[in-house]
Amino acid sequence: MTMKIAESPMAGSFAAAPTIPGGMSVELHPFWGTSLRATVQRDGESVFSCLVDKRGDVATVTDCLPQRRDPVVAAWLCAVCDHLLLSLRCRRIVAIHPAFWDDELGHRGARPLQRITHMRTALDADLLRMHAKPLPRTHRFVPLETTSDALPVVSRLSGPPEAADESRVWGDILSDVYGPVIPEASVRIANGSDTVCATAITEYHGEPLVAHLVTTAELRGSGLGRAALIESLTRLSDAGYADCHLNVLEVNWVARRLYRSVGFVQDRPTLRASRIGPGWAET
Hints:
- By secondary structure, this protein is an alpha+beta fold.
- It is built from 7 helices and 14 strands.
- The two termini are about 35 Å apart.
- The radius of gyration is 20 Å and the shape is elongated.
- It folds into 2 domains: about 20-115 and about 270-280, Gcn5-related N-acetyltransferase (GNAT) (Aminopeptidase), CATH 3.40.630; about 125-240, Gcn5-related N-acetyltransferase (GNAT) (Aminopeptidase).
């Protein structure tokens, strides 16, 4: 029901970038785990930053700052992407950036993908428990297993044609692509021996993330997804976390309505995922 926000983590660290026009430079620094923070430096001060994760030859760029309606700021993101393609030998980059930079990146040859809504909520266990409703008599919450044995179980929650994509998403989650799964807050809903709903909460760059929430096709709209989400958020609060965030495709209004119903609000401008490849700056 949600979408993944990064394709992979990165290994290693890298030196400062060559100088870019205007006496500015791009630098890469270790940030969190295997992630890097890229900065654009001017006269020794950072004027732009973003986070970089890399897996194989694909890098993902997120958390661009500042988020300002200014073509100059968008150009700084372009400079970072140019550098990553060269210094990290990337085949392509997926940049998640404010949608109001679409024109600037489009002029440089970026391929626009989905629009994304970023949402966040403060965790209030008492309020969440007020929202909770009992499960049907034959259903129960059980922990989400995080071993490889769990992959076939959760991948079956979506039938064709979604099954292959679901398997990849769950494989990434169970491989810690979005940070380690928080076991206290990640649950399945079981009906007898069958799993009918599952939610995975991970700690991505130190913050809880709703990495995925899915219900079997025939039970969507039954309230089980909402029940699993409230249970996960309540357990997350009980584990000591203060808030939680997620990313959802803008067109998925059903999911957005669900998240709003339990307290999530959009807290950033609408984002855009854009695909960037070698030679994009010359197009």
